[in-house]
Amino acid sequence: MSKYLLKGEKLTLCCDPAACSYTVTFADKVWTMSESPFVLFSNDTSVPFPLPVCEEVYEPGTSKCVKAVYKGFGESNITVTTKAELELLTDDIYFTLIVEGDKKCEIKKVSFPTPFDFGEGYGDKGELTDKNIPVCYTVLPRMQGCLVPAGMHIGIADGKVFERDSYMPIFGQVRENTGYLAIYETPFDVTYELRYENGGEKVAPLWITSLGHIAYPRKILYRFMENCDYNDLAHSYRSYVKEKGNLVTLKEKVAKNPNISKLFGCPVIHTGIAGHISPDSYYYHKDEPEKNDWYISFYERAEQIKALKEKGLEKAYTHFDGWGNHGYDNLHPSPFPPHEAAGGALGMKHLADTVTSCGFIFGIHDQYRDYYYDAPDFSFDEAVMNADGSHPFCSEWYGGKHTWLCSANAPSYVRKNYNEFKRLGINIEASYLDVFSVVFLDECFSPDHPATREDCAKNRRECLDILTSRGIIPSSEEILDCILPSQVLCHHAPYYTDWLGGSDSNPVGLQIPLFNLVYHDCVVIPWIGKKGSRGGWGITGKDSGYAHANLNGNPIYLSIDADKDTICEAKKVCDMAEKLTHCTMVRHEFLNPNGRIQRTTFSDGTKITVNFDTEEVMVE
Questions:
Q1: Which residue among 456, 491, 526 closes a domain?
Q2: pTM above 0.85, yes or no
Q3: How far apart are CA 446 and CA 392, in angstroms?
Q4: What is the pLDDT of residues 326-335, one digit of tens each?
Q5: Residue 397 sits in the same domain as residue 464
């Protein structure tokens, strides 16, 4: 058993497979993984890695690699192979985990590599750099982005990658202007934990099974940088995505579907037609049954749209919930016919035609994940199947009891429903496929339609691509990196707060537009909140969505009964968003110590400074 020193151009990697310890020395800073990796079995027994049965050093291609093989995990017969590899051309470090011989559902999680120690003495320094950011911090892609100063403890929901805890498959840390970006190269079956010591955060990757097995080699990349901050980490990840061929800009999306260009500079008008709350739903009003059913006719909504036009609104993107037979969140994925009491198919066609005649975009809410028991063609044969043969169950939403539609079966329903719209003569210009880009990817154990989480991402993207192929603008709820190449618009992508929907919520960590720093020119992200309003979904109680929209060069929401002054304010924000549609966000800065004055810089040279206390906006 030995220690191995791999030397790159600017860093060295010291590997000790027997101790499962790995140390990076870079720019006079030392980063060490000192925890013991482990396998967590399904019976909740955690077994640390034993001593390796063999070790090997070799040079594949342009890299140097230390390989170790481990056996003897309690009563399990698994074999674990680890690799620590230094790419000599780039100084990138790759850690690979391979598990062989695991029985179906034998394992819950595997920890390798372990987290980097934040480092003795790098705890809460209680000071800021000249950039008004902490000296030492962790960067997390929680929703729009989160910077966690050393010494601050935050909680995470479950650390799932490709959910709200991690829109993008990355994390990073910076200590006195030197840091690293970590990228999950195999991102579909992984979670993470935050651990604390010496006042600093430790980010621990945890690999989870795919259809009951670790199944394939798991790999994570660490890229070290000096004289860096969170902006540099974001730009490094953008370069990585571009090199992999996964960076799809709005210009490229317009080339596939020219109708997308109509969206740029539009405020978003989000309203509904009808609602029915099932007695099985969490939201059912047992003591006030009159609240469980309501509707506003398609014709009344059409008059409201015409009134907005008369008030001076030049263009808009409209989003109508609850157009189906039982209203919002009911009967999916087969909600036809359009709500009869609200005007039926003719009424919906009238609304669509009115929206179009006003020069606006007609968009709808749709759903292909929640699979309602009372849907006209419901069958468990098409539902997600758990490993034990059961099916997921939920009864929270308005439609009551439901499971999940297997993602493999969703595309056929999309084709079926949009064929029906065409048959009815209802011109759908945009469609929002609910939850596809916010909820964790489903896996299905059905022998007839098995689907891994990676398959789920591909299937969800196929649904959005079907819309694109028909000239329909595709959107979904929030933003997941793995769905983004097929998505144009999201419902919102704000910040993680301690009470997401609360008016008095507080930030979790320091809020940074990490996602926009990577993907600003790839997706349209509207913000909720008119000038003067405070708080809301993902907006802290002291902030306004209006201020965030300005800072991010993004559009804003507009009420269907907005007055002329509100329309005028929205136009200012949206005009700037349109100007910056195809620009990258080059930099985000905090201009004062309390972080209430911030500035963004875009690739065309535009600089936007926002005072979050006064809502003053200055554009250079």
A1: 491
A2: yes
A3: 13
A4: 999 999 999 9
A5: yes
